[in-house]
Amino acid sequence: MHSAILRLKMEFIPRFLTVPADHFFLLGPRGTGKTSWTQTLFSNALRIDLLDPATLRELSAKPERLRERIEGCPGLKTVLIDEVQKLPQLLEVIHALIEEKQGIQFVLTGSSARKLRRTGINLLGGRAAQKRLHPYMAAELGDRFSLEKALKLGLLPVVLGAQNPQDILFAYNGLYLREEVQAEGLVRNTGNFARFLEAISFSHSSVLNLANVARDCQVNRKTAEGYLQILEDLLLGFQIPVFTRRAQRALAAHPKFFFFDAGVFRANRPTGPLDSPAEIDGAALEGLIAQHLRAWCDYTAGEHQLSYWQTRSKNEVDFILYGPLGFHALEIKNTAQVRPSDLRGLRAFGEDYPEATRWLIYRGKERFLRDGVTCIPAEEFLRALRPGAFPS
User: Fold this and answer.
1) What are the chain's domains?
2) In the sheet that 256-259 helps form, which strands lie side by side, from edge to edge?
3) How far is CA 100 from each of CA 96, 97, 128, rounded to the nearest angstrom?
């Protein structure tokens, strides 16, 4: 598959991400709509596309040519550089231009944090904010949002905007295996990495046991740790830690793992006669909520932390959201009915943290209050989740 597949012409749907007034990095996996968003909001910018081979060759040979291009555009207000991680050396030129205070805003997009973290972001001396663009939130899509569709295909703009979304979704994995992992020389054996993606898909929405993942894909633990780091550097997966504030009980020690999009999880998760559809659907639902909460944290002002809670005695709450806009405990159930046992973890959490607002998100139709817990249909919750506020 060629990278052009991620440059499909898509309908522009406004996003919740706010536009910084100064220089900023915009990070996000390929296909999340960074190009569409930046081209729409910065239509008059000088655009440098490092996915274009000719442009990349020219600037690789002499990064200072960026200065020449800028100086050739009098009155220029914005410079937009796509996939800046392809050529981190450009950041030295950008840093010098920023220091000269020429009144130009630099917008730098990237789909990999690996090279930027190692060689780039600090070069700008803290002069550029870091923003993230996520798959669509349900409230961004409005009436276009379908919970059933989101659970099967995810919410990547490049997938939802395609004529054959299922084909594009499965091709997406090929893009990262071939173009990002293999072309960047991140792994020696792409077959091992492909097996790792399949093996770790069984850990999606679960407490991560990396030793088990390494055994399943037949590599040593250190190699599996390296593969996990690559997955996170490419912004394709993330971990959430255990909530430990004012802990009154012995807690789990390991984080939970999620793919960044429910559809990408589906594309990696093998299915067959021995695989429970309900189990896979449940993991997809929890992952869909996770990606929404993560986007909400990044798009909302203030420092908000997403974690989970699990005691050694296996009382668990799927998500804890903690920050200036509240303290929320959320349990996710892929069932149409709420049973007393579904509330056990939230009850235990409420005993330790009576300050928290408790939610049970489920697949039913009715919203109600039971034992101090707001039980709310998943689609209603997702549609109501908007940055800057929490559903009431």
Assistant:
1) 18-132 (3.40.50.300), 138-384 (no CATH)
2) 206-207, 256-259, 237-240
3) 6, 5, 15
How far, CA to CA in Å, does 127 sit from each of 233, 369, 372?
A: 22, 47, 46
Query: Model's pTM, two decimal places?
Result: 0.93
Q: How many residues appear in the chain? A: 392
Question: For 75, left (φ over 0), alpha (ψ -120 to 50), or beta?
Answer: left
Determine the Cα angle at 45 with ends 27 and 9, to 5°.
Answer: 65
pLDDT tens profile 64-123:
999 999 999 988 999 999 999 889 889 989 989 998 877 899 999 998 877 776 665 555
Instruction: For residue 63, give every residue at least 6 positions away whose Cβ sits within 8 Å of its Cβ, in sequence order, or none.
Output: 87, 89, 90, 92, 93
Give me the sheet containing 357-362, strands edge to edge. Answer: 305-310, 316-323, 326-332, 357-362, 373-377, 368-370
Decide the pairing of beta strands 326-332 and 316-323.
antiparallel
Q: Using CA atoms in the order 291, 263, 53, 15, what is the torsion angle rounded to 10 degrees?
A: -40
d(CA 39, CA 94): 20
Nearest to 375 by CA among 383, 386, 365, 390: 365
Report whether 238 contacts 134 (CB < 8 A).
no
Place of tokens 């077959």: 191
Contacts of 222 (CB under 8 A, 6+ apart): none
The token duo for 146 is 């379908």
- Residue 307: other Cβ atoms inside 10 A: 17
Residue 266 φ then ψ, to 5°: -60, -40
Under a CB-based contact definition with an 8 Å cutoff, are residues 198 and 270 in contact? yes
How far is Cα 18 from Cα 378, in angstroms, rounded to an integer? 26
Q: What is the dihedral of CA 134, 139, 142, 147, to 10 degrees?
A: 80
